[in-house]
Amino acid sequence: MTLRRVVLALLMLLGLSVALAAPTISVPNELRTAHELITQSLREYAQGNREQAFRTARSAYLDHFEYAEPPLRVLNPDLILEMEYRFSDLRNGMQAGQPLGELQKIAGEINGSLRKAESIVSGTGVLGPTLAATGGFTILFREGLEAALLMAAIFAYLDTSRNTRLRRAVWWGGGAALLATALTWGLATYVLSIAPVSRELISAVTSVIAVVILFSLSFWLMQQSDRKRSVEFMRARVSQAVQGGSLLALGTITFTTIYREGFETVLFYQALAVASGPVLPYMYLGAALATLALVVTFVLLFRFGRRLPTARLFPVLVTVTALFAVAFVGNGVRAFQEAGWIGVTNLYGRLPTLDPNVSALTGLHPTAETLAAQGVMVLVYVIGILWFRHSQRAAHGPVAGQLERR
């Protein structure tokens, strides 16, 4: 018995000394390194270096992810088991020479799980959920507000023309547009889930399209004169429908006017949903709050006929829209990097490391390419705003001079 106790004591001391001598493992850092190595392995595979790509993918799992497994296995064992299979599928696919598109899809699932694992370890914090909720609120409220103002303009014309019997056609057209928007969301979600391309490539293309629309929206919102012209154009179309006495034409005009806003909403939410990741429920919370705000807006507009202070509201929407565009540019470039289409110049260790949720929602990734793209986008916005203000002064200058002389 005495010898047994001595042996046990020696084993305990040996285990304690090994534990004290072992280096401290940073689980988030190991997960980020695994993420970078997966991206690197895809680039190597795309360049034809299949053996090196296999070794890089194996290193991502054996040399980094395995060190992060112990705490994650306690917190979410199902996620760890799923990721082990995904890592294995990626390595086996590389050895079998599978098409790059199939490997990109597997890698996209691994990267999404790595981000989820990092959020489990680090926690979601406060800023990430706040950004997701703010994005969810702003997108729906901006598009919904524009739709409400357009419908208010249609009803205002119908009231002046004393054609109140046509109101029902407008409501039917608006309702059909909302239904079509919901169907578009469901169809887009389904198609993107079964698309034969990688998740990163889908995210990249969606982000690029969203940036183009957001950029045009930003300057369109600043130009109230353009908005007035669009309202006048819509009223002219309504006038033609009213004079022709066609309820179908009036409903169609309303449908196309509202559905355009709905289609943009679906596109923006698809891009934001990819960026939200583990904090996606907060995006839906923001959308729910925006729905309540829009209900109040509709009641004020259509029940009480109150005018909204849009002149004060639009500058705020312009700022938020510009921030979304900058964030989506960063995410788009990052998605192209993960798909192996753009090179990566890592700045890990040289820049402060952000929470993964915050990084995804702001587009601030520690690579030279993503930050450069965002810098160019900010510069374009600054130049555009300066040009817009200069053109506004030039347009109002002669008028102001004539008024002063009078």
UniProtKB/TrEMBL annotation:
Molecular function GO terms recorded: ferrous iron transmembrane transporter activity
Protein origin, superkingdom: Bacteria
Compartments, as annotated in UniProt: Membrane
Main location: membrane
Signal sequence annotation: 1-21
Topology term for the membrane: Multi-pass membrane protein
A Gene Ontology cellular-component term: high-affinity iron permease complex
InterPro entries: FTR1/Fip1/EfeU (IPR004923)
Pfam family, one: FTR1
Residues spanning the membrane: 139-158, 170-195, 201-221, 241-259, 279-301, 313-333, 371-388
Keyword terms: Membrane, Signal, Transmembrane, Transmembrane helix
Family under the similarity heading: Belongs to the oxidase-dependent Fe transporter (OFeT) (TC 9.A.10.1) family.
Listed name of the protein: High-affinity Fe2+/Pb2+ permease
